[in-house]
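User: I'm writing a short methods note and want a consistent example. For DUF4062 domain-containing protein, I'll paste the sequence; you return only the C-alpha coordinates, no commentary, since I'll be parsing the reply automatically.
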Amino acid sequence: MATPRIFVSSTCYDLQEVRFQLRHFISEFGFEPVMSEFGDIFFDLKAHVQDACKNEIEKTDLFVLIIGNSYGSIYYGHHSHSEPDSVTLQEFRKCLEVGVPKYIFINKFLKHDFDNYKRSKAKAYASNYTASKKDISEIDFTEGYNKNYPFPQESYRHIFKFLDLVESLDTNNAYYTFESFDEIKTSLKKQWAALFYDALKGNKNISQLSINNIEVKLEKIESYIELIAKDTGNKTNSKENKKILSSEINKDHTQSTQEELSRILDHIFLSGKSSRIRCIDKPITNTEAAEILSNIEELLKKYKLSKTIPIQEILSPIKDFHWYTVHAEVPCNALQSLLSLKKNLPKEDHQALYSEFSKRVNIHPLIDDEIPF
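Assistant:
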Protein backbone atom coordinates (compact mmCIF):
# COMPACT_ATOMS: atom_id res chain seq x y z
CA MET A 1 0.00 0.00 0.00
CA ALA A 2 1.38 3.41 -0.99
CA THR A 3 1.93 5.87 1.87
CA PRO A 4 2.80 9.59 1.75
CA ARG A 5 6.51 10.39 2.10
CA ILE A 6 7.24 13.40 4.32
CA PHE A 7 10.55 15.27 3.89
CA VAL A 8 11.69 16.95 7.12
CA SER A 9 13.99 19.95 6.61
CA SER A 10 15.72 21.80 9.46
CA THR A 11 19.07 22.31 11.07
CA CYS A 12 20.03 19.06 12.79
CA TYR A 13 22.20 19.79 15.83
CA ASP A 14 20.02 22.34 17.66
CA LEU A 15 16.73 20.65 16.68
CA GLN A 16 17.87 17.06 17.15
CA GLU A 17 15.25 16.22 19.79
CA VAL A 18 12.44 17.85 17.80
CA ARG A 19 13.44 15.90 14.69
CA PHE A 20 13.48 12.62 16.62
CA GLN A 21 10.01 13.26 18.05
CA LEU A 22 8.70 14.34 14.67
CA ARG A 23 10.00 11.15 13.05
CA HIS A 24 8.14 9.06 15.62
CA PHE A 25 4.96 11.11 15.12
CA ILE A 26 5.07 10.80 11.31
CA SER A 27 5.57 7.03 11.54
CA GLU A 28 2.73 6.67 14.05
CA PHE A 29 0.52 8.63 11.66
CA GLY A 30 1.13 5.95 9.03
CA PHE A 31 3.35 8.13 6.84
CA GLU A 32 6.98 7.60 5.82
CA PRO A 33 9.47 10.15 7.23
CA VAL A 34 12.39 11.14 5.00
CA MET A 35 15.35 12.35 7.08
CA SER A 36 19.01 12.37 6.14
CA GLU A 37 20.39 11.25 9.52
CA PHE A 38 18.31 8.05 9.43
CA GLY A 39 19.45 6.86 6.01
CA ASP A 40 16.13 7.57 4.29
CA ILE A 41 17.83 9.28 1.35
CA PHE A 42 19.52 7.73 -1.67
CA PHE A 43 23.03 9.18 -1.83
CA ASP A 44 23.96 9.17 -5.50
CA LEU A 45 27.65 8.29 -5.88
CA LYS A 46 27.98 10.99 -8.54
CA ALA A 47 26.37 13.77 -6.50
CA HIS A 48 27.35 15.82 -3.46
CA VAL A 49 25.60 14.64 -0.29
CA GLN A 50 23.81 17.99 0.03
CA ASP A 51 22.51 17.77 -3.54
CA ALA A 52 21.38 14.19 -2.89
CA CYS A 53 19.19 15.52 -0.07
CA LYS A 54 17.77 18.20 -2.35
CA ASN A 55 17.08 15.71 -5.15
CA GLU A 56 15.10 13.50 -2.79
CA ILE A 57 12.54 16.27 -2.23
CA GLU A 58 10.86 15.85 -5.62
CA LYS A 59 10.27 12.17 -4.75
CA THR A 60 8.30 13.09 -1.63
CA ASP A 61 4.67 14.13 -1.15
CA LEU A 62 4.87 16.69 1.67
CA PHE A 63 7.59 18.98 3.02
CA VAL A 64 7.91 20.00 6.68
CA LEU A 65 10.24 22.94 7.36
CA ILE A 66 11.30 23.87 10.89
CA ILE A 67 13.21 27.14 11.41
CA GLY A 68 14.96 27.60 14.75
CA ASN A 69 17.67 29.90 16.08
CA SER A 70 20.50 28.42 14.00
CA TYR A 71 21.13 29.21 10.33
CA GLY A 72 22.95 25.90 9.89
CA SER A 73 25.70 24.65 7.60
CA ILE A 74 26.50 26.68 4.50
CA TYR A 75 25.57 25.05 1.19
CA TYR A 76 28.80 23.74 -0.35
CA GLY A 77 28.28 25.65 -3.60
CA HIS A 78 27.95 29.02 -1.85
CA HIS A 79 31.10 29.30 0.25
CA SER A 80 32.40 32.09 -1.97
CA HIS A 81 29.10 34.00 -1.94
CA SER A 82 28.71 37.15 0.13
CA GLU A 83 25.19 36.02 1.11
CA PRO A 84 25.43 32.20 1.11
CA ASP A 85 22.43 29.92 1.45
CA SER A 86 22.34 27.36 4.21
CA VAL A 87 21.63 23.72 3.36
CA THR A 88 18.13 24.12 4.83
CA LEU A 89 17.45 27.20 2.71
CA GLN A 90 18.60 25.33 -0.41
CA GLU A 91 16.22 22.49 0.45
CA PHE A 92 13.40 24.99 0.81
CA ARG A 93 14.21 26.55 -2.57
CA LYS A 94 14.11 23.06 -4.10
CA CYS A 95 10.70 22.48 -2.51
CA LEU A 96 9.44 25.70 -4.13
CA GLU A 97 10.97 24.71 -7.46
CA VAL A 98 9.29 21.31 -7.67
CA GLY A 99 6.04 22.42 -6.01
CA VAL A 100 5.83 19.99 -3.09
CA PRO A 101 3.11 21.08 -0.57
CA LYS A 102 4.78 22.43 2.57
CA TYR A 103 4.18 23.03 6.26
CA ILE A 104 6.37 25.70 7.85
CA PHE A 105 7.14 26.06 11.56
CA ILE A 106 9.05 29.02 13.03
CA ASN A 107 10.39 29.30 16.57
CA LYS A 108 8.05 31.64 18.46
CA PHE A 109 10.80 33.80 19.94
CA LEU A 110 12.63 34.02 16.62
CA LYS A 111 9.42 35.23 14.97
CA HIS A 112 8.96 37.84 17.71
CA ASP A 113 12.48 39.19 17.11
CA PHE A 114 11.88 39.18 13.35
CA ASP A 115 8.68 41.21 13.72
CA ASN A 116 10.53 43.75 15.89
CA TYR A 117 13.25 43.99 13.25
CA LYS A 118 10.74 44.62 10.45
CA ARG A 119 8.87 47.31 12.37
CA SER A 120 12.10 49.02 13.35
CA LYS A 121 13.38 48.99 9.79
CA ALA A 122 10.07 50.29 8.45
CA LYS A 123 10.16 53.24 10.85
CA ALA A 124 13.79 53.97 10.00
CA TYR A 125 12.99 54.04 6.31
CA ALA A 126 9.95 56.25 6.79
CA SER A 127 12.03 58.72 8.84
CA ASN A 128 14.82 58.70 6.27
CA TYR A 129 12.37 59.25 3.42
CA THR A 130 10.58 62.10 5.18
CA ALA A 131 13.87 63.84 5.93
CA SER A 132 15.61 63.41 2.57
CA LYS A 133 12.75 63.08 0.05
CA LYS A 134 15.09 60.87 -1.96
CA ASP A 135 14.39 57.43 -3.31
CA ILE A 136 16.43 54.70 -1.62
CA SER A 137 16.72 51.25 -3.12
CA GLU A 138 15.62 48.39 -0.89
CA ILE A 139 18.97 46.62 -1.10
CA ASP A 140 21.05 49.71 -0.29
CA PHE A 141 18.82 50.75 2.59
CA THR A 142 18.71 47.26 4.11
CA GLU A 143 22.48 46.82 3.89
CA GLY A 144 23.06 50.12 5.64
CA TYR A 145 20.41 49.47 8.26
CA ASN A 146 21.69 45.98 9.10
CA LYS A 147 25.18 47.29 9.88
CA ASN A 148 23.89 49.06 12.98
CA TYR A 149 20.90 46.93 13.96
CA PRO A 150 21.41 45.07 17.29
CA PHE A 151 20.61 41.53 16.15
CA PRO A 152 19.92 39.31 19.21
CA GLN A 153 22.16 36.67 17.62
CA GLU A 154 24.64 36.93 14.77
CA SER A 155 22.89 34.09 12.93
CA TYR A 156 19.74 36.22 12.74
CA ARG A 157 21.35 38.33 10.00
CA HIS A 158 20.94 35.33 7.71
CA ILE A 159 17.83 33.75 9.24
CA PHE A 160 15.82 36.96 8.80
CA LYS A 161 16.51 36.81 5.05
CA PHE A 162 15.23 33.24 5.11
CA LEU A 163 12.04 34.46 6.82
CA ASP A 164 11.74 37.22 4.22
CA LEU A 165 11.54 34.52 1.56
CA VAL A 166 8.90 32.60 3.52
CA GLU A 167 6.71 35.69 3.89
CA SER A 168 7.06 36.60 0.21
CA LEU A 169 5.27 33.47 -1.01
CA ASP A 170 1.98 33.98 -2.82
CA THR A 171 0.45 30.54 -2.18
CA ASN A 172 0.82 27.78 0.39
CA ASN A 173 2.39 30.51 2.53
CA ALA A 174 0.89 29.71 5.95
CA TYR A 175 3.35 29.20 8.78
CA TYR A 176 2.99 28.24 12.43
CA THR A 177 4.99 29.43 15.42
CA PHE A 178 6.06 26.92 18.04
CA GLU A 179 7.71 26.80 21.43
CA SER A 180 7.60 23.04 21.92
CA PHE A 181 7.22 19.93 19.79
CA ASP A 182 3.67 19.43 21.09
CA GLU A 183 2.62 22.58 19.24
CA ILE A 184 4.10 21.21 16.00
CA LYS A 185 2.34 17.89 16.53
CA THR A 186 -1.02 19.54 17.23
CA SER A 187 -0.79 21.75 14.14
CA LEU A 188 0.14 18.85 11.86
CA LYS A 189 -2.66 16.69 13.26
CA LYS A 190 -5.22 19.37 12.48
CA GLN A 191 -3.80 20.16 9.04
CA TRP A 192 -3.50 16.54 7.93
CA ALA A 193 -7.00 15.76 9.19
CA ALA A 194 -8.33 18.76 7.25
CA LEU A 195 -6.35 17.66 4.19
CA PHE A 196 -7.98 14.23 4.36
CA TYR A 197 -11.44 15.75 4.85
CA ASP A 198 -10.91 18.16 1.95
CA ALA A 199 -9.86 15.29 -0.31
CA LEU A 200 -13.06 13.40 0.56
CA LYS A 201 -15.31 16.39 -0.02
CA GLY A 202 -13.36 17.98 -2.86
CA ASN A 203 -14.81 16.05 -5.78
CA LYS A 204 -18.34 16.44 -4.46
CA ASN A 205 -17.96 20.20 -4.02
CA ILE A 206 -16.38 20.64 -7.44
CA SER A 207 -19.18 18.63 -9.05
CA GLN A 208 -21.86 20.69 -7.28
CA LEU A 209 -20.17 23.96 -8.25
CA SER A 210 -19.98 22.84 -11.87
CA ILE A 211 -23.66 21.91 -11.81
CA ASN A 212 -24.60 25.31 -10.35
CA ASN A 213 -22.58 27.14 -13.01
CA ILE A 214 -24.14 25.07 -15.77
CA GLU A 215 -27.63 25.73 -14.40
CA VAL A 216 -27.02 29.50 -14.41
CA LYS A 217 -25.70 29.39 -17.97
CA LEU A 218 -28.64 27.23 -19.12
CA GLU A 219 -31.09 29.69 -17.59
CA LYS A 220 -29.46 32.55 -19.49
CA ILE A 221 -29.41 30.58 -22.74
CA GLU A 222 -33.08 29.73 -22.24
CA SER A 223 -33.95 33.40 -21.77
CA TYR A 224 -31.95 34.29 -24.91
CA ILE A 225 -33.82 31.63 -26.90
CA GLU A 226 -37.14 33.00 -25.66
CA LEU A 227 -36.20 36.48 -26.87
CA ILE A 228 -35.17 35.14 -30.26
CA ALA A 229 -38.39 33.10 -30.51
CA LYS A 230 -40.45 36.24 -29.90
CA ASP A 231 -38.93 37.75 -33.04
CA THR A 232 -40.51 35.07 -35.25
CA GLY A 233 -43.44 36.62 -37.10
CA ASN A 234 -43.32 39.76 -35.00
CA LYS A 235 -41.16 42.46 -36.62
CA THR A 236 -42.44 45.13 -34.23
CA ASN A 237 -40.58 43.70 -31.21
CA SER A 238 -37.58 42.36 -33.14
CA LYS A 239 -35.33 45.39 -32.70
CA GLU A 240 -36.22 45.81 -29.04
CA ASN A 241 -35.53 42.16 -28.25
CA LYS A 242 -32.18 42.31 -30.02
CA LYS A 243 -31.23 45.31 -27.90
CA ILE A 244 -32.16 43.44 -24.73
CA LEU A 245 -30.20 40.37 -25.83
CA SER A 246 -27.14 42.45 -26.73
CA SER A 247 -27.34 44.30 -23.41
CA GLU A 248 -27.48 41.04 -21.40
CA ILE A 249 -24.50 39.57 -23.26
CA ASN A 250 -22.47 42.77 -22.78
CA LYS A 251 -23.37 42.83 -19.07
CA ASP A 252 -22.13 39.25 -18.61
CA HIS A 253 -18.91 40.04 -20.46
CA THR A 254 -18.31 43.22 -18.44
CA GLN A 255 -18.86 41.42 -15.14
CA SER A 256 -16.47 38.66 -16.17
CA THR A 257 -13.83 41.24 -17.17
CA GLN A 258 -14.25 43.14 -13.88
CA GLU A 259 -13.76 39.98 -11.84
CA GLU A 260 -10.69 38.97 -13.85
CA LEU A 261 -9.12 42.44 -13.51
CA SER A 262 -9.77 42.49 -9.75
CA ARG A 263 -8.13 39.07 -9.38
CA ILE A 264 -5.06 40.16 -11.36
CA LEU A 265 -4.60 43.43 -9.45
CA ASP A 266 -4.98 41.59 -6.13
CA HIS A 267 -2.19 39.26 -7.24
CA ILE A 268 0.04 42.23 -8.10
CA PHE A 269 -0.59 44.56 -5.17
CA LEU A 270 -1.59 42.32 -2.27
CA SER A 271 1.30 39.83 -2.31
CA GLY A 272 3.35 40.36 0.86
CA LYS A 273 1.08 43.29 1.79
CA SER A 274 1.83 43.02 5.51
CA SER A 275 5.36 44.32 5.05
CA ARG A 276 4.92 46.92 2.33
CA ILE A 277 5.15 50.66 2.59
CA ARG A 278 4.22 52.92 -0.30
CA CYS A 279 5.24 56.57 -0.22
CA ILE A 280 3.53 58.62 -2.94
CA ASP A 281 4.27 62.32 -3.41
CA LYS A 282 1.04 62.69 -5.39
CA PRO A 283 -1.58 60.31 -6.82
CA ILE A 284 -0.65 58.88 -10.20
CA THR A 285 -2.78 59.77 -13.22
CA ASN A 286 -4.37 57.63 -15.90
CA THR A 287 -1.66 58.83 -18.28
CA GLU A 288 1.04 57.51 -15.96
CA ALA A 289 -0.87 54.26 -15.57
CA ALA A 290 -0.92 53.95 -19.37
CA GLU A 291 2.87 54.43 -19.46
CA ILE A 292 3.34 51.70 -16.86
CA LEU A 293 1.17 49.22 -18.73
CA SER A 294 2.78 49.98 -22.08
CA ASN A 295 6.17 49.19 -20.52
CA ILE A 296 5.12 45.79 -19.16
CA GLU A 297 5.68 43.90 -22.42
CA GLU A 298 9.33 45.02 -22.59
CA LEU A 299 9.85 44.13 -18.93
CA LEU A 300 8.49 40.62 -19.51
CA LYS A 301 11.04 40.18 -22.29
CA LYS A 302 13.82 41.53 -20.08
CA TYR A 303 12.88 39.19 -17.22
CA LYS A 304 11.76 36.24 -19.35
CA LEU A 305 13.81 33.77 -17.27
CA SER A 306 12.55 35.16 -13.95
CA LYS A 307 9.38 34.35 -12.04
CA THR A 308 9.08 37.88 -10.65
CA ILE A 309 9.88 41.50 -11.55
CA PRO A 310 10.87 44.18 -9.00
CA ILE A 311 8.05 46.63 -8.36
CA GLN A 312 10.54 49.48 -8.77
CA GLU A 313 11.03 48.44 -12.41
CA ILE A 314 7.31 48.26 -13.08
CA LEU A 315 6.60 51.68 -11.59
CA SER A 316 9.75 53.34 -12.97
CA PRO A 317 7.80 55.65 -15.36
CA ILE A 318 6.46 57.47 -12.27
CA LYS A 319 8.96 60.07 -11.11
CA ASP A 320 7.14 61.14 -7.95
CA PHE A 321 6.71 57.64 -6.59
CA HIS A 322 8.85 56.03 -3.91
CA TRP A 323 8.50 52.43 -2.82
CA TYR A 324 10.09 50.49 -0.04
CA THR A 325 9.22 46.94 0.88
CA VAL A 326 10.80 43.70 2.01
CA HIS A 327 8.95 41.76 -0.69
CA ALA A 328 8.88 44.15 -3.66
CA GLU A 329 8.51 41.45 -6.30
CA VAL A 330 5.55 41.01 -8.64
CA PRO A 331 4.79 37.61 -10.23
CA CYS A 332 5.41 37.60 -13.99
CA ASN A 333 2.30 35.51 -14.62
CA ALA A 334 0.13 38.23 -13.05
CA LEU A 335 1.68 40.86 -15.33
CA GLN A 336 1.24 38.58 -18.34
CA SER A 337 -2.44 38.18 -17.45
CA LEU A 338 -2.84 41.95 -17.14
CA LEU A 339 -1.20 42.46 -20.53
CA SER A 340 -3.45 39.84 -22.16
CA LEU A 341 -6.55 41.42 -20.64
CA LYS A 342 -5.54 44.83 -22.00
CA LYS A 343 -4.98 43.43 -25.50
CA ASN A 344 -8.43 41.81 -25.49
CA LEU A 345 -10.19 44.99 -24.37
CA PRO A 346 -11.66 47.39 -26.95
CA LYS A 347 -9.63 50.61 -27.15
CA GLU A 348 -12.54 52.61 -25.76
CA ASP A 349 -12.24 50.60 -22.52
CA HIS A 350 -8.52 51.27 -22.00
CA GLN A 351 -9.16 54.44 -19.98
CA ALA A 352 -11.31 52.46 -17.56
CA LEU A 353 -8.44 49.96 -17.18
CA TYR A 354 -5.93 52.76 -16.50
CA SER A 355 -8.31 54.29 -13.97
CA GLU A 356 -8.66 51.02 -12.03
CA PHE A 357 -4.89 50.42 -12.11
CA SER A 358 -4.05 53.94 -10.85
CA LYS A 359 -6.69 53.58 -8.12
CA ARG A 360 -4.90 50.47 -6.81
CA VAL A 361 -1.49 52.17 -6.87
CA ASN A 362 -2.80 55.21 -5.00
CA ILE A 363 -4.11 53.18 -2.07
CA HIS A 364 -2.00 53.77 1.06
CA PRO A 365 -1.63 50.60 3.15
CA LEU A 366 -2.10 50.93 6.89
CA ILE A 367 1.19 50.82 8.79
CA ASP A 368 1.61 49.82 12.42
CA ASP A 369 4.33 52.11 13.74
CA GLU A 370 4.36 50.74 17.28
CA ILE A 371 7.60 48.95 18.13
CA PRO A 372 7.30 46.60 21.10
CA PHE A 373 10.68 47.05 22.74
